Amino acid sequence: MEDTTFPEVVVKEAENTWGRWWGAAPPHSPTHPALHFGAIPATKKLLCFEVLVANSKHALLPGGLDVLILNHIGYSYFNYFNGDVGHIRKLLETNFLSYVAMTVSALPMLKESEGSIVVVSSIAGKTAIPFTAPYSATKFALDGFFSSLRQEFIIDKVNVSITLCILGYINTENAVRAVSHAIQDTPAPKEECALEIIKSGVLRRRELHYPSRTVGSLLLLRDIAPDFLDSLMRRAYKVENIRRT
Amino acid sequence: MEDTTFPEVVVKEAENTWGRWWGAAPPHSPTHPALHFGAIPATKKLLCFEVLVANSKHALLPGGLDVLILNHIGYSYFNYFNGDVGHIRKLLETNFLSYVAMTVSALPMLKESEGSIVVVSSIAGKTAIPFTAPYSATKFALDGFFSSLRQEFIIDKVNVSITLCILGYINTENAVRAVSHAIQDTPAPKEECALEIIKSGVLRRRELHYPSRTVGSLLLLRDIAPDFLDSLMRRAYKVENIRRT
């Protein structure tokens, strides 16, 4: 699962590349209104965002808005589904519905700048991973919604790109803490991952697959040999280390 | 989009094949407790189901439960996304969260019978279709949740099969009313579709693709030529007939 903050290198890259982006940033930039959302909980991020937009973009974002990066997630367990429907409902609010709400709020500015929306998802949002049923549901929902919206933008000649980022296992602190006891793979570096996310948004790509070889192979197998892929995914986990809570 | 009721032929087939199934049925069988959910709204279906389960399966389902068919949907528009996040939240309750809740309620009985769960979805739950963003989000969420759960069942040696049905354009009354003005294809027959749904559940298949050639081709293109598929999907609609409401 991806982290909710971006490493230092991304901030530098972003500041060198463009000055108007929103949605994910380091907690130590509280004085920059366009870069202060990474430090606060996702639900508050959404409120802040909506208040800022409502208060007038010109006061706080004098240069407008070029890129909306949607990256936050709520806590979910990495374990067998425990039957708690309320947990899925809550997770949908943070991981999915808030992404839609932020898109709705930002869209007038993004249309003006002919900007980009970057939606950070996961391989668990594309194929069947065990122990992530609530999380997978929310990430699949992002794919369904934003892929449909991208089609409508093209038909409607709205020049706002939508990039869906499909990430494998990344060495962010949160991801390693959550799944390292159960995953045998070596995680990919978060710095390179973050740069790839930025590049894919700037280049207005349809999807980012990172690490490209791993994610690309899994997605190809998904359709040509789904049962084989399911079996591979099950074998990728140290099931004996998953303890029911 | 699929209908919420099953045609007569399915009922006959079901009664000939097995006597213990639940979740979708014709409105004219109100006296059969295992076959009366098709006639009432989806939210009430869930309540009825939970009350019935809580009241004791032996009183109402003396033979237990072999198959849970999840097929109901709430109303959604076929049009450009209108920015209404509340509509998506409500649709998630009916099209997705109620499926999870019914599965949780039925699971003890299904484990006992080593039964099957059949989840009816759509090609809009697998690939990017324009004008269906809220609906697609809910159908993608089903894929994410139930595909992950299937993996956990296999790992946990729970012998309950999960079949995800990916349906194309079917000639049910609801589907034809909703999209015939905008779709150029000829819909596939609902009777054959319903039989394929039943067969796929009985045969404990991973997924049903119906009509198989159309859906199979689209899913293959999705990964090997996604931009081409997107373009095909956009051209499949009479966009001039989509009027913003």
TrEMBL record, chains A, B:
E.C. no: 1.1.1.146, 1.1.1.201
Task: Write down the top EC class of this protein.
Answer: oxidoreductase
Q: Can you cite a GO biological process for this protein? A: steroid catabolic process
Q: What is its main location?
A: endoplasmic reticulum
Q: Which GO terms describe its molecular function?
A: 11-beta-hydroxysteroid dehydrogenase (NADP+) activity; 7-beta-hydroxysteroid dehydrogenase (NADP+) activity; steroid binding
Q: Looking at the Swiss-Prot or TrEMBL record, what is one Pfam family this protein matches?
A: adh_short
- What is the reaction catalyzed? 7-oxocholesterol + NADPH + H(+) = 7beta-hydroxycholesterol + NADP(+); glycoursodeoxycholate + NADP(+) = 7-oxoglycolithocholate + NADPH + H(+); tauroursodeoxycholate + NADP(+) = 7-oxotaurolithocholate + NADPH + H(+); 7-oxolithocholate + NADPH + H(+) = ursodeoxycholate + NADP(+)
InterPro entries (alphabetical): 11-beta-HSD, NAD(P)-bd_dom_sf, Sc_DH/Rdtase_CS, SDR_fam
Tell me the superkingdom of the source.
Eukaryota
Instruction: List localization entries.
Output: Endoplasmic reticulum membrane
Q: Which UniProt keywords apply?
A: Endoplasmic reticulum, Membrane, Oxidoreductase, Transmembrane, Transmembrane helix
Gene3D superfamilies, per this entry?
NAD(P)-binding Rossmann-like Domain
A GO CC annotation recorded here is: endoplasmic reticulum membrane
* Membrane topology listed for this record: Single-pass type II membrane protein
Q: How does it assemble?
A: Homodimer.
So what family is this one in?
A: Belongs to the short-chain dehydrogenases/reductases (SDR) family.
Kindly provide the name given to this protein in its UniProt entry.
11-beta-hydroxysteroid dehydrogenase 1
Question: Native species of this protein?
Answer: Buteo japonicus
